[in-house]
Structures are given as C-alpha cells and as structure tokens.
Amino acid sequence: MRITVLGASAGGGFPQWNCNCRNCAGLRAGTVRAKPRTQSSIFVQPDDSADGVLFNASPDILEQIRANPALQPGRALRDTAIAGVVLIDGQIDHATGLFMLRERGSALPLWCTDAVADDLTQGNPILRVLGHFCGVQRHAIELDGRAFSVPGVAGLSFRAMPLSSKAAPYSPHRDDPAPGDNIGVTITDQRSGRSVFYAPGLGVMTPAVFDAMASADAVMVDGTFWTDDEMIALGLSSKHAREIGHLPQSGEGGMIEWMAKLPKHTRRLLIHINNTNPILDEDSEQRAVLTRAGIELCEDGMRIKP
Ligand code: MLT
Ligand code: MN
Ligand code: ZN
User: Fold this and answer.
1) Ligand 3 centroid to 266 CA: how many Å?
2) How far, CA to CA in Å, does 255 sit from each of 185, 226, 269, 270?
3) Parallel, antiparallel, or unpaired for β 82-86 and 52-55?
4) Residue 286 phi, psi (nearest 5)
5) What is the CA(191)–ligand 1 centre distance, in A?
6) How many CB atoms lie within 10 A of CB 80?
7) Whole-angstrom Cα distance, residue 261 to residue 256?
8) Minimal-distance CA residue to ligand 1 atom 7
9) What is the pLDDT of residues 165-215, one digit of tens each?
10) Of 166, 299, 153, 174, which is closest to residue 245 (Cα–Cα)?
C-alpha cells in the first residue's frame, strides 16, 4: 500500500491565518526553520496508480488535490481517484472539505460512525446540504472490530476502533462523549499483510489502543500538542490538550513514553500537528527529543510505504 500525507497539520493549518505565535510568525518571517502544513488528511492506495481512499476531507482539499496529481486522473471528462471517503471524526478540519467534492457525478461513498453521521446531519448538517448536490452514499462504520472494504480499492481492508477523544463543539453531545465520536483505523494490505494504525485524534491511551498500535507496522497518531497546557500557557485557550481529546507528547503518560514501549521495528509518525507545537521548529530542543526517540513528523506530500 501507499499512503500520501495530504495534510499533516491540525485544525487551522500551519501557519494559521490569524496566528502570530512563535511558529506561525517565525515561518512567515523566515526566522523559524519549519515547513508549512495544510489540514489533516491522508490518501491511501493499494499501489501507485490505483484509486484510493481519502481519510478525512479537509478545508484545504482543493489545494491538496492540486499538489498531488495522482488524485486527479484524466480518464474521462470528469474524473477522480477518490473511490471513497472515511471520516475519523466530524470536526471542521476533517469534514468541511466534503463540500468541495459536491461536483461529483454520482453520490459520494462515505464511511463514518453513527455518532459522526448524526453530528453531520444535525449540528453541522453537511450531509443534508450535499443532498442538494451529488448526494452521499453513507456506509456505517461499526465499532465491533469487523473489517470493511471500499469498492474500487482492491486489496485493502479497514478496521475501526472507538477512541476516547471529543466530539465537535456543534455536536448535540459535545460534553457527553459517545463511542464513535472519534475512531482509530487499522489499514491492512491483504497481499503483503502489512498494516498502519491511523489515529489523528487520540485523547486517552487504553490497553486496546496500545495493542492496535503495537500490532501495526507503522503508526500515524495524534501529534497535536507537545504539552497538556500548551494553549493555556500561550493564552490562547482555557482548555488542556487532554480535555479537547489530544494526548500530548511530553510528560508522564504522554505519547513519547507510549511510543517507547512499541516493538523496535514499528515506524513511529506524528500527524495532526498544531501550529503552536514547538516540534514544528526543526531546530528546537523538542524536535531533537523526538529525533533521538526515533519519532518522525509527517509532512505534506510525504509518502509512506509500510
Ligand atoms: C481538533 O482536532 O481538536 C480540531 O483540529 C479542532 C478544529 O478543527 O477546529
Ligand atoms: Mn482536528
Ligand atoms: Zn500559530
């Protein structure tokens, strides 16, 4: 299988349009060595030239398609390599790009949990609005560990697990988390047997989640914040990382500690990195800590062949 990182940033992107934090201002001014990143999405194909699955539809999707011509083949007057879309949650950064796919010639095949489908028909009724355009052919993602496949994408299978994270602010149950608000997905190449665990929003590590990570050849997991109080310390929010569903990298019980317990051969990648995170600065001490720990940062355009 081949995975293309379309966007490695969390909501807001990097730099964020209205942000003058050290990273955003430094990137604009050229005083911080870092790479810009668009919002959270990956494209997964069985091989280089095949149609694939879009994981999350970010507000930056049109720019991401332009930057990755493999997504826009020329086999017909109107064409796309996106055989289907899988949503990890119903947040703005993962779902609003669906509007940009409205010119599709047939209903958009979409996989999401019931909790996300509810949020996207009630709190933020994207799926209802799309009914006035191409329409959506929605498939339910079950949380019992059963595998699903996406027609037109041969040889790949997908298995979801519920994660403790957070529903979107417009969710009718924002403060009453439901299983399926956020999922992690194990993507398996049935020919090679190789697999990736993808979870851009992961708030709490549990034995089941760690087991899914340890069973995969590569993990692409929540890289949003370095510290639990990152947004509070900058005066940008009153909420801790864990409260909004993101396990920080540093500190006790943080992602670095967990990744150190993975089997030696597991490839460790962080994705969904917030623009405030010091790891984006390639010369930062925090980035050096990750490098020493064998942890990579996803970048837009990066290709991963697990
Ligand atoms: C999150 O995962 O918390 C989001 O990136 C929030 C957002 O997109 O607004
Ligand atoms: Mn997000
Ligand atoms: Zn910023």
Assistant:
1) 31
2) 18, 9, 11, 9
3) parallel
4) -65, -40
5) 35
6) 18
7) 9
8) 11
9) 789 999 988 888 899 999 999 999 999 999 999 999 999 999 999 999 999
10) 166
CA 221/CA 236 separation, integer angstroms: 24
| Residue extents of the structural domains in the chain | 2-304
Structure-token pair, residue 301: 């355009």
Query: Which residue's structure tokens are 């390599």?
Result: 81
Measured by CA distance, the residue closest to atom 8 of ligand 1 is 11
pTM exceeds cut of 0.85: yes
Residue ID of nearest Cα to ligand 1 atom 9: 11
Listing DSSP states for 238-282 in one string gives SS-TGGGT---SSSTT-HHHHHHTS-TT-EEEEESB-TT-GGGST
Query: Which ligand lies nearest to the CA atom of residue 12 in the structure?
Result: 1
Q: Which residues line ligand 1 (CB under 6 A)?
A: 10-11, 91-93, 201, 244
Pocket test for ligand 1, best of 92, 124, 165, 273 (most atoms within 8 A of CB): 92
What is the structure's pLDDT at 45?
Answer: 98
pLDDT of residue 165: 78
Which of the residues in the chain have pLDDT under 50? none
pLDDT in tens, 125-164: 999 999 999 999 999 999 999 999 999 999 999 999 999 8
Please give the number of the atom of ligand 1 that sits closest to the Cα of 92.
8
Q: First-to-last CA distance in the chain?
A: 7
CA distances from 125 to 117, 119, 169 (A): 9, 7, 13
Q: Which atom of ligand 1 lies closest to the CA of 40?
A: 5
Residue 117 confidence (pLDDT) = 98
Closest of 48, 37, 56, 1 to residue 301, by C-alpha: 37
* CA–centroid distance, residue 38 to ligand 1 (Å): 13
CATH superfamily, domain at 2-304: Ribonuclease Z/Hydroxyacylglutathione hydrolase-like (3.60.15.10)
